[in-house]
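Here comes my example:
=====
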Amino acid sequence: MSLPPWNGVNYTPLSFTQELLDKLGNPQNSYRSIHIAGTNGKGTVASLLNHILVKKAYVPKVGLMSSPHIFNINERCLINSCPVSDEELNLALARVKECCDQIGTTPTFFVAITAAIFKIFEEQKVELAIIEVGLGGRFDATNLISAPEISIITSIGLDHQEQLGNSIEKIALNKAGIIKQRTNLILGELDEVAKQTIMLEAKSKGVTPIIAGCNSFYNTLILSPNFIPKFFLNNLKIVLSCAEYLKVSTDNLMEVISDYHWPRRFNIWEKTEEDLASCFIIDGAHNPPAVELFLESLFKFSTFKTRYKKLIFMFAFLERKEWYQSVTIIKRYLKEHSDIEITCAAICMSEEFVSAEGYSDFKGCKIIKTESELKSFINDKFLSGELMGIFGSLKLPTQIEDALLLEGFSKVSFLNH
């Protein structure tokens, strides 16, 4: 099925998406669902909640719809944590195309894949589906779920301003669009403006929000000797509040989540040979709030793992994102930690990424324009005693992980590090 990609601007109108879902029999309403929106954290909340519910066998079949995919489109549609097959996905997309042909309109990629996944969940008799919003909330294709069991808003920050608005209030209002009449609503940490905006929307829908809080398991985890990134702790509060509502037992929960992994969310890759070691941490932090959290966690990890004597920042930001604010945050960290030897490298290999000219005022920042330059830079850091934080986009070159695998680096979870 040939589909126009989302170009950062266009939406398929919800009226068309509703017509498409009508022709498919409105599969999105045939199972219980949890609908998750937020500037940052929605992917981690969705994937961690899915991991717990599947491991705990909460229901026989749990579905997870997430975006974007990193390596393969099948990642967007999991049933009991297993990606659907190419055959099953193609059959569902063919059915979507048939309906679109009847309507006489071609949808965007996201609308088509959303409709296909909704249909797969119905056909596979999924009992509970965890649905991550693609962009915003109010006008997102996923927002045609009529009555989710739980709606979650993880965080509000400046991102996708061209589509969602250039203020926290406007962005919060868009994401608050997922709140349905008298549904259950869980909120993560929000600033006062965002909180008040969402509270007003919730009140108009007869909803009393639950503010994600701590419990005994959370308190035990934060006192553990392991390093836990701040972003994970923030999202864990939300997941535990949701699990509590669903009456999921927290018995043996540390064991359940100890092998949790989600691509490019503080993925730690390490290798040690005799007295030589290196560590690469890969994270898809791609907007100012996420970059702030990632760098804060990276410095804490550096303190926790004192064997690494030098820090390297490698980043690739999308041109259409709020990249300049993110670079400003990086510069601030360099200034605040001038006592630490830190070097920077910007990946400018793709037309989607910020070009070398965008970093012209970034003194001492190495520019990587080709795959061979990337490979050379990465290879020089093997067993160098350095800690490299790689971040800025979920579209980071896959050659980075490929090189680490070939070199025999091990991927370890921060939960059992």
